[in-house]
Amino acid sequence: MRALLVDRSAPGGLRLGQAPDPAPAPNQALVRVTATSLNYGEVRHIIEESPDGSVLGWDAAGVVERAAADGSGPAEGTPVVTLAPDGAWAELRAVDTHRIGTVPQGADPGAISTVPVAGASALRALHRMGPILGKRVLVTGATGGTGRYAVQLARMGGAHVTASTGNPAAHGDGLRALGAHEVVSDPAESATVDGVVDLVGGGQLVAAHDRLAEGGTLVAVGHLTGEGENFPFGALFGAPERHDRTIATFFLLRCTGLAPDLTWLAERIATGDLDPQVSWRGAWDRAPEAIEALLGRTLHGKAVLEIG
After folding, report:
1. For 191-243, how does the pLDDT look when each residue is reduced to its tens digit (9 = 90+)?
2. Could you give the count of Cα atoms lying within 13 Å of 85 in the half-sphere of its Cβ?
3. Is there a contact between 224 and 141 (Cβ–Cβ < 8 Å)?
4. How far apart are the C-alpha atoms of 211 and 82, rounded to whole Å?
5. pTM of the predicted model, to two decimals?
6. Which CATH architecture fits 2-114+276-306?
7. Name one GO molecular function term (predicted).
8. Does the 123-252 domain belong in CATH 3.30.457.10?
9. Hey, where are the domains in the chain?
């Protein structure tokens, strides 16, 4: 099969080449990939850390070529959206059926391919907070792919949404159109909130944690700064106004129940209830262009590669 192979001598660290077809385990379906979306973490770190010749990629939409031998998962010919630790940047991938969501017929595979990491991470982060109807939620790094999903889903869940972005003048109108009630340039500017989806880390996480109300939860999802979190002395003390606050983390690939999440998100994309915010789209031989835009922070939203 054709695939994007790690080759650090090539632009973007990838080149089109040939790789062996995957051999699915009994609990895996073989999926013919039609589109994949790129994530900052995989192009910034995973390409650098992987040996030449590797086939990477987390997110992919496609069609089941061969159903799982154990009878689990969708049938042959079913449009699907898939999540796995590798294998998305190829014509075929083998995927555990508990990480496969079904997709409505006729849905745009490119839009659907944005769902697995960005959409599911945002959804799981909001679930970690508990019911958000009538609550106040802050999303940091709101202009990225996960941030834009988090803003929409928090608004859909009935929260009052504050979006934090480094350039409100450029991105404020777009974030408000997605559902943000307020847009700020720094988490420290936010009013007190009941929950935080933090996609930045470092000093912004510390500032966002300081805005948590009693019983509030900060879910650390992204770490774009590459910096540690240095809390000032006293920030983690218990006090009447700081009672019962939580910092939570999760690893998406260890989460159970992902198939229903992926299916639900794909349905929301297909009906137009969620906007995938695709801001770059092209054939997979143009992957270096998309990677350069992601790493240069000139691309806000999601980049989609069409496979084949």
Report:
1. 999 999 999 999 999 999 999 999 999 999 999 888 999 999 989 988 887 89
2. 6
3. yes
4. 36
5. 0.95
6. Alpha-Beta Complex (3.90)
7. oxidoreductase activity
8. no
9. 2-114+276-306, 123-252
